[in-house]
């Protein structure tokens, strides 16, 4: 399998971590979707990463779709419960973490792609409210648990860890550790895993 992505994308990182936790072999193909010579549209018509290209040439995109598929390939390191409310809760954690990253990405694009006089502070404020609200929801949901889903490491932790790591990378001015010490403890625990160490955003 080939994974098309970038080293700075938290969504690509999520897939890479799952690949490593599941001990799956793949080739990472780097592509800057904002560059004039990007070829991502050949595999994903939406022009986004990550995109997983299978052995038969078929392509799969959207990180949530990809990681769900990967979790079915081997029983090693199961990250998503098979069914029921527990499964929905883990996927809800993933949606929350992805939503924080989506909002942060919209802020970043507003500040990097638009000229200063064209930027909307109201838009930035609206997206930042989603980031801070999402962080609060994560902290409230985590409480004093070892992992997001309770006692077992899951996709929820992968997603939340990627979101927190990406905020450190792109928004160091957001002091989420001071506001949410339980998230800091979780992040420190996750950062000790080899899959997190080897996929640091850059």
> Structural class, from secondary structure content?
alpha+beta
CATH topology of the largest domain: Glutathione S-transferase Yfyf (Class Pi), Chain A, domain 2
Largest sheet: 4 strands, mixed
Question: Do you know the CATH architecture of the largest domain?
Answer: Up-down Bundle
Which residues form runs of ≥5 with pLDDT under 50? Answer: none
- SSE sequence, one letter per element: EHEEEHHHHHHH
Strand order of the largest sheet: 2-1-3-4
Number of strands: 4
Oligomer: single chain
Specify the number of helices.
Answer: 8
Helix content: 40-55%
**Rg, please?**
17 Å
Q: Roughly what is the average pLDDT, rounded to an integer?
A: 96
Portion in strands: 5-15%
CATH class designation of the largest domain: Mainly Alpha
Termini gap: 23 Å
Short structural summary:
This protein is α+β, with helices and mostly antiparallel strands and 202 residues long. The protein has 8 helices and 4 strands. It has 2 domains: 69 residues, 3-Layer(aba) Sandwich (Glutaredoxin), CATH 3.40.30; 110 residues, Up-down Bundle (Glutathione S-transferase Yfyf (Class Pi), Chain A, domain 2), CATH 1.20.1050.10.
Give your account of this protein's structure.
- Residues 1-78 form the GST N-terminal domain.
- Pfam families: GST_C_2 (PF13410), GST_N_3 (PF13417).
- The structure is a single chain.
- The chain is an alpha+beta fold and 202 residues long.
- The chain has 2 domains: 2-70, Glutaredoxin, CATH 3.40.30.10; 84-193, Glutathione S-transferase Yfyf (Class Pi), Chain A, domain 2, CATH 1.20.1050.10.
- It has 8 helices and 4 strands, in the order βαβββααααααα.
- Strands 2-1-3-4 form a 4-stranded mixed sheet, covered by helices on one side.
- Strand 3 and strand 4 (59-61) form a beta hairpin.
- Helix 3 (84-113) packs antiparallel against helix 4 (121-142).
- It is globular and about 50 Å long.
- 33% of the residues are buried.
């Amino acid at each position: 399998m080939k994974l098309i992505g970038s080293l700075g994308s938290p969504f690509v990182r999520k897939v890479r971590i799952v690949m490593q936790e599941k001990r799956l072999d793949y080739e990472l193909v780097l592509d800057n979707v904002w560059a004039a010579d990007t070829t991502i549209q050949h595999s994903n018509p939406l022009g986004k990463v990550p995109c997983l290209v299978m052995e038969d040439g078929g392509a799969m995109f959207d990180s949530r779709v990809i990681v769900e598929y990967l979790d079915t390939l081997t029983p090693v390191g199961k990250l998503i419960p098979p069914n029921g409310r527990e499964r929905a809760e883990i996927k809800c954690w993933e949606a929350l973490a992805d939503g924080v990253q989506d909002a942060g990405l919209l802020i970043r694009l507003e500040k990097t792609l638009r000229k200063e006089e064209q930027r909307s502070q109201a838009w930035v404020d609206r997206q930042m409210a989603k980031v801070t609200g999402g962080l609060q929801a994560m902290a409230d949901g985590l409480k004093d648990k070892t992992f997001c889903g309770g006692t077992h490491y899951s996709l929820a932790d992968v997603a939340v860890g990627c979101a927190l790591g990406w905020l450190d990378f792109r928004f160091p001015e957001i002091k989420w550790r001071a506001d949410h010490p339980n998230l800091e403890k979780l992040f420190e625990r996750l950062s000790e895993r080899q899959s997190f160490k080897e996929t640091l955003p850059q």
